[in-house]
Input
Amino acid sequence: MSQTMSAVRLHAPEDLRLDTVPVPVPGHGEVLVKVWRSGICGTDLHITKGNFPAPNLPLILGHEFSGVITEVGEGVDSLSSGAHVVVDINIACGHCYFCRRGQKLFCPQVEQLGVHRAGGLAEYVAVPASNVYELPSSLSLDDAAYVEPLACAIHGQDRIGVQSGDRVLIIGGGPMGLAHIALAKLSGAAAVIVSEPDASRRRLAGAMGADILIDPFETPLDERIAELTDGIGPDVVIEAVGGIPTYESAVAVVRRGGRILAYGAAPQTATMSLRPFDIYSKELTIVGSYAGTYDTWPRAIALLAEGRFTPSTIVDSIRPLSEAVDAIRALATDRSTVKVHIQMP
Ligand SMILES: [Zn+2]
Ligand SMILES: [Zn+2]
Output
C-alpha cells in the first residue's frame, strides 16, 4: 500500500483541485522532499487559465518551495535525509545545443517542476538530486521558499545590468516588482521609481526601498516621468506586470539609449504595437528574462542567508494547503494580497 498525500492538481484549464494522490517514490538519482513551504505565483494562475503552456495534465503545481529530504533514491550519495533544501526547478537534457552553451532554459526537453512535471504544491515532491541546493544553517525554510522567485529576479537584473548611478523605473509593484526594487538598490541605482496603481502595494514598494512612488491612474506615467527626469527618461525600465499597455509605456518613457527589461509574463498570444523607428532612433536595448537557473540559485541563497533581502516584507499571507486552490483563483481579482506562501501540514 502506497501512502497518500494532498496535492494541488490541474486537470484541465480552470479545473484546479485539491486531490489525494500517492506519495511519489524517488527514482534513480532522485530524492524525496517533504515540502515545508510553497509560494504561489502569478504563473500558477496563467497555467490554471490555460494561458501558459502546461502540456502534461493532470499536473501538480508549485515551483517555489523549500523542504526537507526524507528519502534518498538509488545512485545519490551527495545528499542525505534531514537536509534542508531548495530545488532548481529547471531540469534539462544536458547535451543539446542549448545545454552545451549554458542555456538550459531553451533545451527542447526542459521540464520545470510545477509546470511540466509534478511540483511542490503538495506534501511531497520527488526531484533530481542534481537540482537540489542544501541550505546554510542561517537560512530558514520559511525564507528559503523565496529562493526561486529571487533567483528569477537576479537573472533579470543580470540581463539588464543595472549600473551605479542608473535611474531605474519599475512598472508594477507586485511580488516580482518588489524584488527588483531591492536588487536595483543593491546594484547602486541612483533612484528607483515605481509605478503601481494599488496604494497598499505602493506602501510595500516604499518599504522595499523605492525612492519615488507613482500612481499611474492619478497622473499619466509619461507626464510624471518627464517631470521627474527633466524630460530625459529613466536609464532602465523594468516591466514587471505582463500587460500590453505597460509594455507600450516602457518603450514610450525609457530614455534615448536606454534599456528595457521584459520581465512580466504577458499572455502567450497577446501582441503589442511597437514602432521599429523607436528602437532605431532611440537606440533601445530590449532584453527578455524568463527564469533563473544555474548560479542565480546559490546567489539568491547567499542574499537571503546574509540578510540582504528579507522576503517577509513581500510575503504578506501564509495559508494552509487546504486554501491553496482558492488562493490561486483569487490572484485574478484580489490585489490586497501580494504574495501567498502555503505552509504544509
Ligand atoms: Zn513563480
Ligand atoms: Zn538540453
